[in-house]
């Protein structure tokens, strides 16, 4: 049962020449009555709304092909050449049965909401319906937004393949990359990308249709987009260039959208796609929740595999590290071998010492073995795949090689003859590895996917019959008051738990094993709160301002987004954040703020870039910003050592690394730039040596991170060039080390950008108690924070520092620390200072009563070594 379906949706043959006549007929007959197709075509051109429907809709099928005149006339039906396998797989998707209903609703209404269980085919099929009905052309594309980058990339690939169209036509755009061309007609993108586009062109005139996918996730950008689009759609209508808006959601909480009269004056129609869900039996654990849920998952999977009939297993864990660790345990317990001749290689690969071997290092005598087909080959899913986005998956240290996990795995060793085909799935997994879960497992094996939350709604895995749900999720938490964020593992919501359970019933009746008791389940919140109620507002405000939305008060934003919940945010907090980022102080947006908003990075970093047009600092700040965005440049410096031997090894790596860096930067003035210097030095030295994998491995750098940084530097250079047309930067990965003047300038730029992340060491005489020893006081937190042991400034303890971020482990630690000269603070961060009368001229000092730096009005400092750049606005 389970496997049959998987085979059908697998459809490997790349370019099946053309589907047969019958299939074309078969497709056209039930789904494309000419009435609806014609109104589909007429609709985008002319009047919208009530007038569109043709009451007497003829039921005759359309001719399968259209003459080439279709391009200039209102399109009727754009044929798509799908392979037989694709055709067959499509017909099994519930949304196919609703194509006519969906298209009629879209033809007749400017805004439509489509609700359907995950896996019903919304994301992959609705864009195709629209394409076939002639909604896409070179002058107006179909845009689809996804909250996750993986979804944007993998769905564009999937749809291109299904439609037999090239990636020039069905393309994707995520923050730093994409394959969009002039020919693009279907464009998948992240919600952030569309928001940026609205900034440049408020009416989104490039698009005929916008689909907001996964709206139930309530990601912040999705919420804002819906708010903005609720205004853009009527505006486009007025201009006679109607835009269709389609909101797609799993069946959660659509009332938030439909019943919100501030959002849509006319209630949009909601189309329910029948999910054809099979019953899922839910089994709760009797015991109260366990701390070792990962171990419990392992035991549960073992039991299912031994005792229950065929069918795939899907395990939900919280993060990438856990996913890998469980995958390893399972592979050890139920090894899968393609055939016996390879067992020697396999056992070699499986010994812990070989875990980090790359395929390049395999002995030449074994060249023929296709390592990618071994589920046991750890190099296949190295942790290095993280690409450093601030995704929840990326949280936590996950370089665990799981060497000494001397658990009771021996006892668990399989008595089942069936091997387990174990695959990891998380959002930063490389797309080609992710795609594996959609393929049928090798014959004679059982599929077991160990996943994070991505498998909850974004991606549907075929053939799953058993779900093991740990009940937890890793989420970024924003402290309401300070904006400090940390990743925490918490209980999921009831809605999420039910979604996860639902994954078991896609192809046949299934079972969901919840590793928590029903009493605990009853205590879960019903839904998790929309992100917009939790995120720091600073970037939001800046974005809104750049959109020329006047008076960006939090209330203004509420009105724009029209979600009741957002009113939870305090005005006071907003005001404070506004003060803290000097670029936002003036309303309307300052030229600096406008420039900032055009950069595809967070405001703090954008401010650094915008201020770097002096002393030729731009290439360096671009590098620093890229490095800060990518994060985790170093392989294992930041990891607490497991053993003493390992500690020594880490130390050795670190020493070698610092040595290597000096070769590039000399002993020079870069020291005070602190950890940011280390980042700059790492990139500088690496590029200087040609950025090879060997160099990176030798010096403990993450090769992938280095490549990503190079890529980002190119992207940001292009972005800067397009803002400052005379900057004339060119991309050269190699750099000279900065001069002393440049380092000073860079440090000031970093201070200006990360200003609200200023911290001051608590002096001996101010010590309240021991917990403040060597501690810093930040502008945002009451509690003591410390310089992270991995920082180069850990021992130096400068009086003032700025940090990139605070992470909470045993203590609150600052990471990405750089030293600040006290006299810069009044010049660059006046809101943090209070100014005394200029009687004498003492250096600035800290005023504990006021909690601020005390100094004179700093006319002398203002322009010393610091000037605002000549920013150009296009
Ligand atoms: O968006 P929705 O959750 O409604 O469904 P979808 O993402 O369009 O997926 C429809 C079907 O396509 C599912 O059964 C997926 O397993 C399958 N699919 C696939 O086989 N390979 C992909 N790369 C993407 C989807
Ligand atoms: Mg979807």
UniProtKB/TrEMBL annotation:
Residues covered by region (Disordered): 1-66, 380-416
Ranges annotated as biased composition (Low complexity): 40-55
Compositionally biased intervals (Acidic residues): 11-25, 380-392, 399-413
Biological process according to GO: maturation of SSU-rRNA from tricistronic rRNA transcript (SSU-rRNA, 5.8S rRNA, LSU-rRNA)
UniProt keyword list: ATP-binding, Helicase, Hydrolase, Nucleotide-binding
GO annotations of cellular component type: nucleolus
Domain Helicase ATP-binding stretches: 103-270
Annotated GO MF terms: ATP binding; helicase activity; hydrolase activity; RNA binding
Ranges that cross the membrane: none
Location of the Helicase C-terminal domain: 300-548
Name recorded for this polypeptide: Activating signal cointegrator 1 complex subunit 3
Originating organism: Malurus cyaneus samueli
Interval of the full protein contained in this chain: 146 to 1019 of 1122
